[in-house]
Write a structure and sequence with these properties.
The complex is a heterodimer of chains A (117) and B (901). Chain A contains 4 helices and 3 strands, in the order H-E-H-H-E-E-H. Chain A has 117 residues and is mostly helical. A 3-stranded antiparallel sheet of chain A has the order 1-3-2. In chain B, helix 3 crosses helix 11 and helix 13 packs antiparallel against helix 24. Chain B is globular, with a radius of gyration of 37 Å. The chains are: A mainly alpha (117), B alpha+beta (901).
């Protein structure tokens, strides 16, 4: 399967991959990060989070992290990490979203992004 | 830390997810939920926590459904992926055992197949829904009325003393003499007027003997029931029904000890019975009872053996059987009858005995044959639906012949494929059953709404778990029934010929055609049986409606009053005459009369009021027992009944010389051997009366009841002891304006007199045939649906067969056959099936006509007109149904066929 086959990504999957890109996280971490990144708009519930993870794992975009970030804790929680393939897919999706955003700006649908100094 | 309730619920709901998903992520999901939930509660309080809980649960449910659907679809993809390598090794075994796995796999197949053929699926589901819905509705009635035991403790020990009401003296003798009865109760139902609080009201009161409540295990909701002392002397206490207490006093608990005025007597409310208590229809008139009063058996007024008013129920002693108790009762009765034979003789001068019948059996005997007939009718309808769907499945099985043959070639056993096809049909039937249950909810409501009367316990009717269980069982049975033939057919050995294309498997299709024809013929036959049943009931109804009641029912209004014990005898008579005078003065009133009862006030087999022995004086004729009607002057004129000889009563008869009587023709003939008995004398109730008139005969008890012997006597002289009085008013004014005027007229004379039953005579006549009309409409509906299904069956079957034979038909046309010939070919084929169906159906209908005998009236159950009529109807509709397939056959394209060859 090529990265292109999975584009466009479902927005929820995109956000999950996006926050995993920043580092390995457990379920709770993903939910909180996604909520923060989406400005509070996307609030994942446990069932659907793991449904996404199941699908992303099946397609090889995420995997379980080998090590637990905090050694020696009694936590049984699993941490998830993005795979190399997942990185390619999320980058491709980000590029697609960016080009869509550019087109929207060009047509005046949304204001120009301020260029940072 | 113990998980909170919210967590436990969420954890439980996680079980809805498919097992593999739960195994992989269940623990994580539940821990994550706990984190989210407790964090929300810490940060945002209970409201925030509740929001998280609601959102998580809601989405979990959606997710579970999605996952399960994925689970059904996924193997598709796997199969698709493996399609390149068909020659996979041994069959894939699934976790959970081969059988369950097989069923689940079959189910997936079935659901996929249904999705591919939405038209077929919807049609089949709709047909099954109608069949199962109707069957479930009628079953719930049968279950409530016939199968469920009565709602009293140890109801199987309750027996009813049959053959009408009984006298107090009898009751007391049985109570003392019967060791087979543990306890006995009697009730006398009377209309009572309750005055004081608000408008005067006419209510049903049950005067009960000491142990009546104990027999039925009645408990009070408030206060107490009757005590022993209440039944001695003039204890003025009353017990209210839960319904009356709620309606009239708004469930006010302070009702206990309050005074109410019943029949003019101040009474104290002692208690209210529990709402669980459902009065037995048989003991109280149709279950209508609003309050109970204690009855004193020692009261001298009641010491007459001829005063038959008590409905009697008893609880058998432990270990006693009905025959044993009956023998004991018969022995007591033998003595009583020997001592005073007159008190026990019926209309024909015979004593029929008082059979003991279990209360449940006695309650339902009037309706059980009707209900079983209806159950049979819906059963037939369901069979037709089955045959119909089986036919659809057959046609579809042909279309799938290749698919099945491939499966067979790949190693699936016949058993396995039949299993798969059966799973499909059961799944289809369950879908139909689900829709049918929804229909049954509506059907049950409609049934109670159109309550034809006389069916006990209809208010208990509901779609309960038992009924649901029945619906599911019926669905599964239906699925197997309509699935098995097509499945076996589709997996016949020669069906594998389907692989050898082109040859189009001539043998298989011929056998299929034969099976399809068989199904069509049986549908036609079953539909004919239903149509005959409906036709007979319809004819019974129209026969009744054609009966001349013997008077003019138009522009006639009746008002029924109960002049209870507050009136002295002379007061009743005076009140009646005063009221007639007042009403005669109302605008638009042309004439007015009164009688103890009016025609159609009571209809059916029961007889009421005054029956006595009438002896002719002088030559000829015989002594008869007859019903006596006290009536006022102008009675026949107001009713619009013809006086054949002599005259009717005048005001003068009522006052000056009340020793006169009027007979109907039949009575005159029996008494005097002459229809014109004017001038003759007769003796009844120790009085000699001179016949002054003979009338043609009025149907008093219903259109379907013969005109019986009737002696009319002057109201003024004889009606004093009757507390019932009905007014007949012939008026040009419409009912709407007349009702308030009549009420005012009554209240002007007697402000405390309850007035309720004002209705037109046409309405009374119409209600008297409510039950046959209801039955006729219901069975008519079933029969119409059956006709529709059967004709749909022949239509689709012919259409299919034309589709199959299109090539052949095209060749015929190419060889020079006229298009009309080809169409005729198809029509003839349809007609052949129809005629076979009708012939079989007539035999079937003749076979079941015995069962209908008790329900038809005025026609025989083998009425030739009905039989030929419905057979003709069925034939015409069936030929019409074949019209479109025939036209289609006529348009077969010869070129297409030649090219294909």
């Amino acid at each position: 399967m090529e990265p292109h086959d999975l584009i466009p990504l479902n927005p929820r999957d995109y956000l999950i991959l996006f926050v995993l890109e920043a580092g390995e996280r457990h379920g709770y971490g993903i939910v909180k990060e996604v909520e923060r990144e989406s400005g509070g708009q996307v609030q994942l519930d446990p069932a659907n989070l793991y449904r996404s993870i199941k699908r992303l794992s099946r397609d090889g975009l995420v995997g379980e992290a080998e090590r637990r970030p905090v050694e020696g804790t009694s936590e049984r929680r699993r941490y998830y990490a993005i795979t190399q393939f997942g990185r390619q897919v999320v980058a491709l999706e980000a590029a697609r979203l960016a080009s869509l955003a550019d087109a929207a700006r060009a047509s005046g649908l949304i204001p120009e992004a301020r260029t940072s100094a | 830390m113990r998980p909170s309730l919210a967590e436990r619920i969420y954890g439980a709901l996680l079980r809805l997810l498919p097992r593999d998903f739960r195994d992989a992520y269940g623990t994580d999901a539940s821990e994550l939920f706990r984190d989210l939930y407790s964090r929300a509660r810490d940060e945002g309080g209970q409201a925030a926590a509740l929001r998280v809980w609601l959102r998580s649960v809601g989405r979990l449910l959606v997710c579970a459904v999605d996952e399960r659907i994925d689970g059904l679809r996924w193997p598709d993809r796997q199969d698709a992926a493996r399609q390149g390598a068909v020659s996979r090794g041994p069959r894939r075994r699934r976790r959970g055992g081969d059988v369950m796995g097989g069923v689940i796999q079959d189910l997936r197949h079935a659901l996929r197949a249904f999705r591919r053929r939405p038209g077929f699926t919807l049609t089949a589901v709709a047909i099954l829904a109608i069949g199962i819905g109707a069957t479930t509705t009628i079953f719930s009635v049968v279950d409530t009325v016939l199968l469920r035991s009565l709602p009293y403790p140890e109801a199987e020990r309750l027996v009813y003393v049959d053959n009408g009401s009984h006298s107090y003296l009898d009751f007391r003798e049985w109570e003392e003499g019967m060791s087979g009865f543990e306890v006995m109760g009697g009730v006398w139902n009377e209309e009572v007027s309750v005055t004081g609080d608000g408008q005067p009201e006419k209510l049903w009161g049950g005067q009960v003997t000491r142990d009546f409540f104990q027999v039925l295990g009645v408990r009070p909701q408030l206060g107490r029931l009757f005590l022993r002392d209440d039944h001695v002397g003039d204890a003025a206490v009353v017990v209210l029904s839960h319904g009356l207490w709620t309606r009239k006093w708004g469930s006010d608990a302070s009702i206990i000890g309050r005074r109410v005025t019943v029949n003019g007597q101040p009474m104290v409310v002692a208690g209210v019975v529990s709402p669980d208590f459902r009065p037995a229809e048989l003991l109280h008139r149709g279950g209508a009872v609003d309050l109970w009063l204690p009855l004193d058996l020692a009261d001298p007024d009641y010491q007459s053996r001829g005063w038959h008013v008590l409905n009697v129920v008893a609880r058998l002693s432990a270990g006693t059987t009905v025959p044993a108790a009956q023998a004991e009762l018969d022995a007591i009765l033998d003595q009583a009858v020997a001592a005073s034979p007159d008190s026990y003789l019926d209309r024909n001068g015979e004593f029929e005995g008082f059979p003991l019948i279990p209360l449940h059996e006695a309650s339902v005997r009037q309706v059980s044959s009707t209900l079983l007939m209806l159950m049979g009718a819906v059963g037939l309808m369901l069979l037709i639906a089955c045959a119909n769907v089986a036919n659809l499945m057959l046609a579809r099985g042909m279309a799938r012949a290749r698919e099945l043959a491939v499966r067979g070639a790949l190693g699936a056993s016949r058993r396995r494929i039949v299993g798969q096809l059966l799973t499909e049909s059961v799944a289809l039937a369950l879908g139909g059953g689900l829709a049918g249950i929804l229909l049954a909810f509506a059907g049950v409501r409609a049934f109670s709404h159109f309550d034809p009367g006389g069916i006990p316990r209809l208010q208990e009717l509901s779609v309960d778990p038992r009924v649901l269980g029945f619906a599911v069982l019926a669905s599964v049975a239906t699925g197997v029934l309509f699935g098995i033939l097509p499945a076996l057919q589709a997996t016949r050995k020669d069906a594998s010929d389907a692989l050898k294309d082109g040859a189009a498997s001539v043998t298989a299709s011929r056998k299929g055609r034969r099976l399809r024809s068989l199904l069509v013929v049986s549908e036609m036959a079953l539909a004919l049986v239903l149509l005959v049943g409906a036709g007979l009931l319809f004819r019974s109804l129209t026969e009744r409606l054609q009966v001349d009641p013997g008077f003019r029912t138009q522009q006639l209004v009746t008002m029924k009053l109960n002049l209870g014990p507050t009136y002295e005898e002379e007061e009743r008579v005076r009140f009646t005459q005063d009221l007639m005078e007042r009403v005669a003065g109302l605008p638009g009133v042309r004439s007015v009369a009164a009688g103890a009862t009016l025609p159609f006030e009571m209809s059916g087999r029961g007889r009421c009021c005054w029956r006595t022995t009438v002896t002719p004086l002088g030559d000829g004729g015989e002594e008869i027992r007859s019903i006596v009607h006290p009536v006022t002057q102008d009675y026949f004129h107001t009713l619009g009944a013809d006086v054949a000889f002599g005259r009717e009563f005048t005001r003068a008869d009522q006052v000056a010389d009340p020793s006169v009587a009027i007979l109907n023709r039949a009575t005159s003939l029996r008494l005097f051997g002459d229809e014109n008995g004017v001038g003759r004398e007769l003796e009844m109730a120790n009085t000699t009366l001179t016949v002054v008139g003979v009338v043609d005969g009025v149907h008093h008890w219903g259109l379907d009841q013969d005109v019986e012997s009737a002696v009319y006597v002057p109201h003024q002289r004889f009606a004093g002891e009757f507390d019932m009085m009905s007014l007949a008013v012939r008026s040009e004014t419409d009912l709407g304006t007349l009702v308030p005027a009549l009420r005012e007229a009554v209240w002007a004379l007697q402000p405390d007199q309850p007035v309720s039953g004002i209705t037109s005579m046409r309405q009374l006549v119409s209600s008297s045939v409510a039950a046959p009309r209801f039955l006729s409409v219901l069975l008519g509906t079933f029969a119409a649906v059956a006709l529709l299904l059967a004709c749909g069956g022949i239509y689709s079957s012919m259409l299919y067969s034309v589709g199959q034979r299109r090539r052949e038909l095209g060749i015929r046309i190419a060889l020079g056959a006229e298009r009309s010939d080809v169409a005729g070919l198809v029509l003839r084929q349809g007609l052949k099936l129809t005629v076979a169906g009708i012939a079989l159906g007539v035999l079937g209908a003749l076979a079941v006509s015995k069962l209908l005998e008790s329900l038809v009236w005025g026609v025989t159950a083998t009425d030739p007109l009905t039989f030929t009529g419905v057979a003709g109807l069925l034939a015409i509709v069936a030929v019409l149904a074949c019209w479109a397939p025939a036209r289609r056959a006529a348009t077969a394209d010869p070129l297409e066929s030649l090219r294909a060859e």
